[in-house]
Fold this sequence. Notes:
Structural class: mainly alpha
Strand content: 5-15%
Number of strands: 5
Order of helices and strands: EEEHHEHHHEHHHHH
Largest sheet: 3 strands, mixed
Amino acid sequence: MLHTSDWSFPAEARGATGNHTTVTESILLGLSHACELQMLLLLGLLPTSLLTLLGNLLIVVLTLMDRRLHSPMYYFLHNFAVLEIWFTSVIFPKMLTNILTGNRTISLAGCFLQSFLYFFLGTTEFFLLAVMSFDRYVAICNPLRYVTIRSKRVSVQLVLSSWITGFLLNIIPSFLTFQQPFCGPIIIDHFFCDSFPLLELVCADTSLIKLLGFILANVSLLGTLSMTATCYGHILHTILRLPSAKERQKPFSTCSSHITVASLFYGSCIFMYVRSGKGGQGEDRNKLVALLNTVVTPVLNPFIYTLRNKQVKQVFNKQISKLLSELGARSERVEKFM
């Protein structure tokens, strides 16, 4: 394990103010300092990040291009894909740069921004997952009322509410954190600027900020989890009441895969931020668990929620066929011209 003493404190990252050292830069220790393991991490994280971005970009493009994917469900999935692109972009570029260059420093302002965006986008994702589960509940359990309940206006309002709530729940604790005096040590024992390691840099009492963060984590995590679990509980109950096993197979498979990914995402965040409010203890375990919601679930989400969908596959195949035919027609025109 990498210790604080292994790093020197660069002069540009320090400034004396009284008896304290004012921090202007920090060092992200990352997942490991072993060169062999760093290369393995790079070989694993680089294709994972590209796959996550390409998968979500494909969803965004398909839901914009084809009118068959303009229903409320695909509108939510479109926004979820945009959210995942942002969420991934907050963590991956800096993490990969640190591994490639070996330069693990990050400015305090950059650390603040990464921390705020991570929690803002993550909280928004919780509320959007709850909205999506309610959408599936209405579609499966009350199909006759689905069109009236899920209008375009209602869908837009629900998505905007998710983004606004995610922002409001995080702006106050983030603002309070940013107002604190930071005086070191400059070491952050994580691969990104998580809240608890960041608060270790504060040379003042942070108990109020930690309490506020713990309360808000309970509200956002457990509140949306209860709604999501309730909706999926009703969905499973409805599926099990279907008369034939063949009718139950497809919706049960889809529902179980959704529950698996949601369980990974919620479970990892509850372990880090709600479990007795002890997010700062067991840094190595927290870093491993953090990989679930920053690496594993983002790469699974496009395939679990969208790309396995039969209608999406049909649209994708149609667009590919259309593209190939256009390329073939262009090549024929070029050959005639030549």
